Amino acid sequence: MSDLISILDGNTFVISDGNGDIDASPSLPTGLFSFDTRFLSRWHLSINGERLTALAVNDLQYYETRFYLVLGAPTHYIDAKVTVIRQRSVGAGFDEELTVLNHENKLVDLTVRLEVGSDFADLFEIKDMRQKKGRYFARIDDGCLRLGYDREAFRRETVISSSASAEIDENGLTFAIRLEPHGKWVTQLRVATLGPDGQEVRLSLRGQPISRAKRKLREDLQHWLDQAPTLVSDFEPLLRTYRRSIIDLAALRYTPLVSGGRIRTLMAAGLPWFMTVLGRDSILTSLQALPFLPELAEATLFALAVPQGSRLDDFREEEPGKILHEFRYGESAVFEEQPHTAYFGSADSTPLYVILLDEYERWTGDDVVVHELEYEARAALAWLDTYADIMGNGYVWYQRRNEQSGLVNQGWKDSWDSISYNDGQLPGFPRATCELQGYAYDAKLRGARLARRFWGDPAYADRLEREAADLKERFNRDFWIEDRQYYALALDAEGRPVDALASNMGHLLWSGIVDESRVGKVAEHLLGPKLFSGWGVRTLAVDAGRYNPVGRHVGTVWPFDNSFIAWGLRRCGLAEEAGRIAEAMIEAAEFFDGRLPEAFAGYDRALTEYPVEYPAACSPRALSSGAPLLLLRIILGLEPHADHLIIRPALPKLIGRLELLDIPGRWGRIDALGRQR
Asked: Quick one: which of 180, 210, 216, 4 has its CA closest to 104?
């Protein structure tokens, strides 16, 4: 997608070519999308029958861009008589201001044509190339072009209007214009989407300025930036990465349709394939951003409480107390061709939910939320001891119950081949990956704190603490591979270690389940040559049978994964080791204009000299945008304690001085300072 131009606001986004045109692709999500449906698949501009070429593209804001165009193909010398500016933005819909400029000293007559079309493809159909089963229609309605698709009760519509008079047909709009010498012509194009809420949309733009919506977006972004702490540093790349991360998180905000009547802002997980709520991603991003934007955690906790599992449903893999994995609004979900309304196929979202609730209270002191969500937290903890314990031995296991369309692996490494023995063979099911046990341990201890301090249930707290202690003892016995001195990636159905060396082990450190005597060995492996590439910790060791430096979960480096590994190292007292990971991530971000991608290749740093982006990486990805925030917390040593903030800086060598001002929390606002000694 490197040659494509994208703008977004929440889960509404536009991806076009470098000229601003849109051609539907069977493999790439080019077009205008909202709530998992493509509302525009064709958007071609021509003048006098000629296509246009971009001289430059300005990335104005995440929701707005501008194209400078000339007629015809590019040459070494272009003496353009007519130029065109396309300025577009997304918000409630899609707006494009089209300006045509005459640079000649005479009258010019031009025919401006905009070819328009929509296939109303479901985002899943683009990936899987499914055939549509409904009916298309196109008609001219009150000076607008209305394109539509319906299948039984499912209906989606796209309405295109212009502020200038146009000749409209079912395939587009034609403008016959006359330009005075050195004159210009302007029209404002509006594409409105009739979305899944079924509400009518404004059909005409005549007399209505589109600047109002953009002004609101600008004001909202500025408020978002003002709310975040101010970063001051002598290391300029870190400042760029921090600002980029905060802005990308702003870009990914949206209000889901499962918010339970409360206006709650969630993060879409990532452009382009995951512009929706993913339970795990929302929770982990909220954890990363807590010292900076704590309102994200509150919104996530309430939004995920609404669709919490309450019954047994094999198709959706729903179970009582389980936190959802993913929610989709497209046609394939509505007609249950895939299970995402809502889908519960993740084994980690549920313990992570309890962890976030406790960490949120520790940071903000907001005990009202803890009381409001007591039922949901108790239900999540109960799930760990019932439906999660498939084998009845006290561990968290997973095995999909939807054999047709459910996820095979249900941890964050959800690729089909991500869990393997060291020789490359795949274990059978069910599987108990190591990090799931760490999350369960952490959730039980945090649940005990909440029960004792806020829910008035010391007996329940005692029980949870006993269960956590028992889990830690058994885990350190069953998962530790003595002759290799590291924790197994998983246990198979026979209770045998799945012995590949993988980054999952790093998540154990921040959970607290690792025996203190083994912390050093775990750190040695994480930062040793098999896992550490020089740019970060790989998902799988280089000597594993399935290692592939450009394999999604079998050798790539994931910034979010590294941020949590670094957090674990710091929590275990290994500040220098945590700093090495933070330093590598910050340096890597510079090669991506300050924006850490979803993942990059696991090639050794000495081999490539720069991080190579994973070819199908989402960008922006919420978890990657959150990674620099968690890394800042780590290197400044920020930890909430009672009613104050502990600050113990340990800066990497490339940072001489670091200040984080106005850190929000239960203490109000506070500043943190770190410097090299």
From this structure: 180
Instruction: Bin 404: left if φ > 0, else alpha if -120 < ψ < 50, else beta.
Output: alpha
- pLDDT tens digits, residue range 32-70? 998 889 999 999 999 999 999 999 999 889 999 999 999
Question: Which residue stretches of 233-278 are H helix?
Answer: 236-251
Query: Residue 129 pLDDT more than 80?
Result: no
- pLDDT for residue 76 is more than 70: no
Which amino acid does the sequence have at 675?
A: R
Cα 172 from Cα 52, distance rounded (Å) = 17
pLDDT of residue 632: 98
State residue 113's pLDDT score: 98
What are the residues whose beta carbons fall under 8 Å from the beta carbon of 21, sequence distance 6 or more? 43, 44, 45, 51, 52
Rounded to 10 degrees, the C-alpha dihedral 541/547/552/558 comes to 20
Alpha-carbon distance 267 to 135, whole Å? 33
Give the full edge-to-edge strand order of the sheet including 497-498.
432-433, 490-491, 497-498
Among candidate residues 674, 585, 668, 667, the one with its CA nearest the CA of residue 624: 585
Q: Rounded mean pLDDT of 486-513? A: 98
Q: How far apart are CA 538 and CA 477, in angstroms?
A: 26
What does the alpha-carbon distance between residue 452 and residue 441 come to, in Å, rounded to a whole number? 17
β partners of residue 68: 56, 85
Global confidence as pTM: 0.94
Distance in angstroms (rounded) separating the CA atoms of residues 391 and 146 = 55
Q: CA–CA separation, 245 vs 585, rounded Å?
A: 13
296 phi/psi in degrees, rounded to 5: -65, -40
Per the structure block, which two tokens stand in for 52? 């246009």
Instruction: At 670, give phi and psi (nearest 5°).
Output: -145, 155
The tens digit of pLDDT for each residue in 612-637 reads 988 888 889 999 999 999 999 999 99
